[in-house]
């Protein structure tokens, strides 16, 4: 008999929330990219998010920390293709979260959670730079930090302990009869189908 195929079912509100968060993240990242390009062309350009000397997003975007997180330029060189504006990485991240979030596999849930942890760590790092080094408040930046944290919560909700057990240990280390009994007893099973030689485990995260 083949190993179980673990699929994580997501409620409609989670899919809607992810769609809105990711689309807003892409939109803000695109605007940040636009501001940086315009500022590079015209030093007198003033963005909508440039409220005052201490509340300026263009000041942040054009700083050394606005490209490659202030780190990749030192590692790969300022002219390296890896040293892109942070907004480019933001566009890729939100698009990745949106597209991969449409899948229902446990592997996807684990990848989404891992990248979310990295994004939250990056937000904390950039938030520190923003407040203590640049001594500035960037409304657009802080908004993306909040979006990253919301995605982290959504991904945490999706990923559960049972999916990690299935994914990491597989059929070689687990007696599947015991797993079936445990999952059924846990009360978080929405559907357990026996179809030919494949078990489909559908977890409703709304019950967690």
UniProtKB/TrEMBL annotation:
GO MF annotations in UniProt: quinone binding; vitamin-K-epoxide reductase (warfarin-sensitive) activity
GO CC field: endoplasmic reticulum membrane
Membrane topology: Multi-pass membrane protein
SMART domains documented for this protein: VKc (SM00756)
Family annotation (Pfam families): VKOR
Major localisation: endoplasmic reticulum
Protein name as catalogued: vitamin-K-epoxide reductase (warfarin-sensitive)
Species of the source: Muraenolepis orangiensis (Patagonian moray cod)
């Amino acid at each position: 008999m083949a190993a179980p195929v673990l699929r994580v079912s997501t409620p409609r509100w989670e899919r809607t929330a992810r769609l809105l968060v990711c689309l807003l993240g892409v939109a803000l990242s695109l605007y940040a990219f636009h501001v940086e390009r315009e500022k590079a062309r015209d030093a007198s350009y003033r963005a909508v998010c440039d409220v005052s000397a201490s509340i300026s997003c263009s000041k942040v975007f054009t700083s050394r920390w606005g490209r490659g997180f202030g780190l990749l330029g030192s590692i790969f060189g300022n002219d390296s293709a890896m040293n892109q504006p942070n907004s480019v990485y933001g566009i890729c991240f939100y698009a990745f979260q949106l597209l991969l979030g449409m899948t229902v596999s446990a592997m996807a849930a684990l990848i989404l959670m891992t990248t979310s942890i990295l994004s939250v760590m990056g937000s904390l790092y950039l938030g520190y730079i923003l407040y203590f080094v640049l001594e500035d408040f960037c409304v657009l930046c802080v908004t993306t930090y909040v979006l990253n944290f919301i995605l982290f919560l959504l991904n945490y909700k999706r990923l559960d302990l049972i999916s990690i057990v299935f994914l990491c240990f597989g059929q070689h280390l687990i007696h599947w009869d015991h797993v079936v009994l445990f999952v059924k007893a846990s009360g978080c099973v929405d559907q357990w189908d026996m179809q030919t030689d494949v078990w489909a485990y559908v977890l409703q995260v709304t019950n967690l």
